[in-house]
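Fig. S4 source data, part A: sequence.
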Amino acid sequence: MTPFPLPAAGLPPPAPAPALSPALREAAPQYQLIRPALLAGFLWRARGWILGLALAAAMLAAFWLWVLAIPLYRAEASVMMETAPPSGLEVTMFTSPFIGTPVEIVSQMEVLRSNELLLQLARAEELEEDPEFAPRPFWSLSPLRSLWPPDAAPAADDQDQRDQALVENLRERLFLRNIPGSLVFELAIASEDPHKSLRLSNALARAYIAHQVASRQQVARDAAAWLSLRSAELRETLILTELQAASQRAASSFRSPEALTLLEQQIKDLRDRLARTGPGTSPESEAAMRSSLARLEASHARQSRDYIALQQLEREVEAQRELYQHFLSQLQQNLARAGLQNAGSMILSLAILPARPFTPRYKLVLGLALLGGGLCGAAIAWMRLASMRGLRTPEEAEQFSGLPVLGMLPLLPGLADGADRVGIGTDPASLETAMIRNLRAGIELALPPEAQAPVILCSSALPGEGKTTTIRALAAHLAGLGQRVLVLDADAWGRQPPATAPLRLRPGDALALDQALMQLCRHQAPRSPFRLEASAIAGLRREDWSPAVFGLVIGFAQRHFDITLIDSPPLLLVRETLRMLPYCDFTLLLVEWQRSDRRHLAESLALLARGRSANGTAIGLVLNKIDRDAIARTGDAASFAPLFQDRGAAHSP
């Protein structure tokens, strides 16, 4: 047996040498594609959340569908615009067929939504008294509206306001669609009663046709009134023009075109005679001819002016007569066709009674509820996984810390109920014993080859991570194998010291020292570990801890025991634990499954790295308090295969 070198009494322990820092940070993110296997594994582990929220959402949707939702029925009628006039009717400037342009289609759709048409339909069908369409408060839309009194709705004093509210309610139920590439409109009014929807949809189609006929008849009447007024004005103008022409004709010197032509011939002949006069012509005769020529030219000029004026008046009279006749003809045509106006549209097909409601859509709502609930469940599971600060699998622990995981321990009974189970791990057929045996093998493989009577320090970052129970289980297992095991309970810093006087060790007399320490070791039963309370020794109490005294106790343990297990205080609470490291051959750091925070583990590993001695004390991790039932529920048993290779493997999926 090679004893650990002990420092002289009163001397400080060996100075710690620089130690290599473990990989305390998570590995750098690797940019890679999401593998389908990883995604499938995550969805399988989160199936509880996904299925639970999907079923909850489906139940809420079903409650809304069958209890709160109001089914609405919609009977659809079809109306088509006509682009050619009926045979036998002439198109005039006041009534023309549709051409089928997009502007006309949009205009007719707005006509179907107009207040005038909807109000006409509401009054024709007496919807003012219908509780489904009459103005009412918003809470009366619920199926429980019968619980409210009839006068719960505020009465509107203004008839226009009531009509507008009625039209708005009717417009909310109106369905209108133009079939692309055609002149066909599909229209319907939804209602809680399928027969009412059928009646209102057909009534709306007929009202639209009647509205078209009435509007065209009104246009024809307005055109006839305007034509009558315009014809009367033109008749008066024609009469005045004819009277003016008659007066002008009576007062004119113009007789006829023939007389004007004869007068022109006389003037020409007289001019020729004047041109042939010679020296033998008397002056009196020449003067008489010139006087006659002047008189004839003056008469000709006067008759020409009168002739031109009469022609202008006659043209005006003819123009007025033609315009009057045109307007009179248009008036007669409009009067003749006043009762033969067509709508410009036709009902292509009347609505039929709907067999099932169009809303709510049960299958769609249930499908979306299941999908949305499943997505919410997956999102919650992902957020829980992303916000988890603890370590779940051994691979995560090794990747985070850079240290090996020597063992995985399930949730032991002593950890679950707080009992002092010293005998845990003694049943060779139990899972606990198998896991303790794996931990013991991992420690033996991690110990240096030259380590004899090794001293193993067991610690954790914070209290409550199962350190004490693990030490006791491991000690009971080793003692059951025939080894002499000493458990040094140094984790008494949180308890009050005993009232008895502590034992004071004197390093000069080795025999007396061994006897005194042996008396403090309590032998519980045959093949059981020895236990030594550190708080019962002066120099190891929390108020007077001395490394020299601790070295004496370690020397005693190595001389008389095969292995020493030290139950040390948590690293982040008691820093004296670091002063024990130079005397230990191995450090066992416990990590609670999914509970130990990564930041606390990183701080603990940093402290251990600074506190290791020059001989390089090895460190190993133990993943503790693993809940097999939780793993079985998430379906991640592959990462914890050793925990399911027992009689309880039926819990594994």
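Fig. S4 source data, part B ends here. The two ends are 49 Å apart (CA to CA).
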